[in-house]
Write a structure and sequence with these properties.
By secondary structure, the protein is of the alpha/beta class. It is built from 18 helices and 14 strands. An 8-stranded mixed β-sheet has the order 3-2-1-4-5-6-7-8, sandwiched between helices. Helix 1 packs across helix 3, helix 5 packs parallel to helix 6 and helix 13 crosses helix 14. Bound molecules: nicotinamide-adenine-dinucleotide. Nicotinamide-adenine-dinucleotide binds next to helix 1 and helix 5. The site of nicotinamide-adenine-dinucleotide (NAD) has 26 residues, from helix 1 and helix 5.
Amino acid sequence: MFLSAISDQAIPVHLVDTRASVSVIGLGYVGAVSTGCLAGLGHRVVGVDIDPGRVDSIATGRAPLHEAGLDDLLQDGVAGGLITATTDTVAAVLATDVTFVSVGTPTAPDGGCDTRYITAAAREIGMALAMKNDYHVVVMRCSIPPGTTLGLMVPELEAASGKKAGRDFGVCFNPEFLREGVAVEDFHAPAKTVIGASDGRAAATLARILEPVDPAIIHTSIEVAEMVKYVDNVWHATKVAFANEIGRLCKPLEVDSHEVMDIFVQDTKLNISPYYLKPGFAYGGSCLPKEVRAVTHIAGQLGVRLPLIESLAVSNRTQVEAAVEMVRATGARRVAVLGLAFKPGTDDLRESPALDVIAALRAEGIEVTAHDSAITPDGPVARGSRIAALGATMVADAESAIDRAEAVIVTHANEIYRKLVAPLMQPVVDVVRLFRPGTPQPPTLCGIGW
Ligand SMILES: NC(=O)c1ccc[n+]([C@@H]2O[C@H](COP(=O)([O-])OP(=O)(O)OC[C@H]3O[C@@H](n4cnc5c(N)ncnc54)[C@H](O)[C@@H]3O)[C@@H](O)[C@H]2O)c1
């Protein structure tokens, strides 16, 4: 049922051929805001929901939820003939060029993502695609586990339409980063715009719609775009939990937590920066493990619970165990460890995770030969470290380290190691992302988080 007729007379003539018309499936926070804001940019928008109350609200220019500025946008859109609304998905898709999917994805009983609304919506969109001759783009905007667009939505669309995604119609994943309360403002000044697409034509069609609010669109694969959305929200949750733990720690110490964090965020080199934010090996060295222990100890004495900070050491140990397991899985009895210090460019072996890997391998009777560009095997650093006690052999040149090795683990990224392992045929465990994607690398290379 269309509550407001879609008619070409209603569309300002100068817009007819320039802007894609958009159907928005699901008129909750995301869909209602998209409907109002896209109409504000001059697009003809057809809103769809299974809830007739929401459809009626949009069709009469009233926001179905409280969001600053949305009522005005919807009123203007309806008055200008740009916004209509219906419960009929098939009719809405047939009447438009692009379909945004923003149905709910609540938590399933098992804690996962309930995808039943996506399945239902995809089936109906697919039925419309079956009847459509023109190229159409389906844009998934829900927050969903990586793989859902291609593994669930696309098969539903293809089965219902009898057509092929990427050829007969386009599919994009375009995560929504709006914050409720300032959603209209965020639509016009997004934190970022990410498009994952099945093909170039789909990406270009969606980019043309979004470029007026963000010319610097980030293009990527559908799976990466899906993951970005989850990672963003987990990061935001981590920040909130972290800041709250700092508050709980500061209060009994009578330290002003807000002043601490005001200073903390001014460090844009190490704190609020890309630094420390790439998956790789465990942290170590003379500071991080010690200070995490000290903070955990202070909290314990004060009776303050800091589950996030307390779990850092557990998480770090898990990363070391993951590296050991990867080496173990090769079945090698002779292993080369390339890189010993807790990070490259230093000879500091204090709490180096590479030594924990060696300890675990030696405990299983595995023969270990080790190399580090900054450490001389018979020098004082090596002599004073755990390496000798662990029964590992340290060598002065990396070639002799891998000479008899059945497997190699690389813990430092440098040119020497890159050249050395590139032609190897034996398993290489990489915990530092030694090779950029697309560059030649050993066929047996296995990355710890990639
Ligand atoms: N709310 C936010 O701030 C926000 C931000 C970013 C991303 N997201 C994601 O966007 C998606 C939508 O979120 P929301 O908060 O707008 O959800 P919501 O629950 O407010 O709205 C979802 C709407 O979809 C409708 N719907 C369900 N099945 C339908 C179908 N088959 N056809 C048509 N309509 C259908 C529901 O009736 C409801 O009105 C979710 O995946 C959410 O995780 C939400």
